[in-house]
Amino acid sequence: KVDMVVGTVGSNVVPVMAKICTENNTFLIILTAASNDTTRAQCNPLVFRVSHSNWQMTAPAGSWLFKRGKKRVMTMGMNYAAGKEEVGAFADEFKKAGGEIIDQKWPGMKELDYQAYFADVLAKQPDAMFTFFAGSNAVEFVKQYAQAGLKERVPLFGSAYLTDSTLLAAQGAAADGVITSGHWAPSLDNAANKAFLAEFKKATGKDGDLNSMHGHDTLEVMAMGLDKTKGDVKDKQALSQALQKVEFQSPRGPFRFSRARNPIQNIYAIEAKGGQLRVLETMQTNVEDPTAECHA
Predict the structure, then answer these.
(1) 279 membership: H or E segment, kind and range
(2) Angstrom distances, CA of residue 285 to CA of 72, 92, 96, 235
(3) Quick one: CA dihedral 274, 156, 12, 4, positive or negative?
(4) Beta strands of 31-171 (E only): which ranges?
(5) What are 45's strand-pairing partners?
(6) pLDDT tens-digit profile of 204-231?
(7) What pLDDT, in 10s, does the model give residues 165-194?
(8) How far is CA 8 from CA 31, 134, 201, 215, in A?
(9) Which of 152, 117, 148, 149 is nearest to 133 (CA)?
(10) Distance between alpha carbon 157 and the CA centroid of its chain, in Å?
(11) Which H helix or E strand runs over 261?
């Protein structure tokens, strides 16, 4: 009996949430979960995503890495939806650019010891390693990769969740020099980001992170959409159209929705160094997840 549901984080959870919400004629504003099909074949006028698709996060890194001289790459990713889709997007675009994926490894989600995988890295001598790990898995992988002496021999790259700002303290010096692809970093130099970080710190006493940035933008989207309908939530079609037209300067840069209701946004190359994340450059501007499968 609500007008909108806001959530969630897990790519494996959001398809069920979307089904329940749409069957009950209720809006779902997706905060973080990034499963591709949610804004492709399963798209719905009641479902909006404020974060990114899994494809969107890493596809630009494929050609970007190839252009920087990495011709033979090995990948590793957590064996679930997000890992498969984010590593898969990178691998597809890397191969299109002319690169070779020489091996792919898929550790389980509960697997936290990666030493057994590292022998192959030394034996196959890739130009780089591209990965998807998140949370405690990312902490352990980054630390173990450095402890095995691989970081200097096979440079480590990955999705932004590999060195999320909330993980850097636990990763320590092991994260230094790791480069990821993502849509936001605390150091991104724009007025909206500076204001967001200052306001979040004042309100909570904590540093803003990726999920809190998603929360900020979710509220911005909801407020702007509801402003256009003068607070009317009963006319679902009108509110959906109003949300669809939302555009603003986000802490991540320019924000607007695709016709599938997924953000069109910039993707950046982000380096971890000294417990901080710095934006090296923009990998690609106005990255839009493919919308051909969306017919709603």
Answers:
(1) strand 276-287
(2) 26, 19, 19, 34
(3) positive
(4) 47-49, 72-77, 100-105, 128-132, 156-159
(5) none
(6) 999 999 999 999 999 999 999 999 999 9
(7) 999 999 999 999 999 999 999 999 999 999
(8) 6, 15, 23, 11
(9) 117
(10) 14
(11) none
Other residues' Cβ atoms within 10 Å of the Cβ of residue 110: 8
pTM listed for this prediction: 0.96
Planar angle of CA 178, 184, 188, nearest 5 degrees: 90
Which residue type occupies 159? S
What are the pLDDT digits (tens) for 65-119?
999 999 999 999 999 999 999 999 999 999 999 999 999 999 999 999 999 999 9
Q: What is the DSSP string of 104-131?
A: EE---TT----HHHHHHHHHH--SEEEE
With the C-alpha atoms ordered 236, 242, 243, 244, is the resulting torsion angle positive or negative?
positive
Burial 15-38 (b: 16+ CB within 10 A, else e): eebbeebbeeebbbbbbbbbbbbb
Q: How far is CA 12 from CA 41, 158, 207, 211, in A?
A: 16, 20, 28, 17
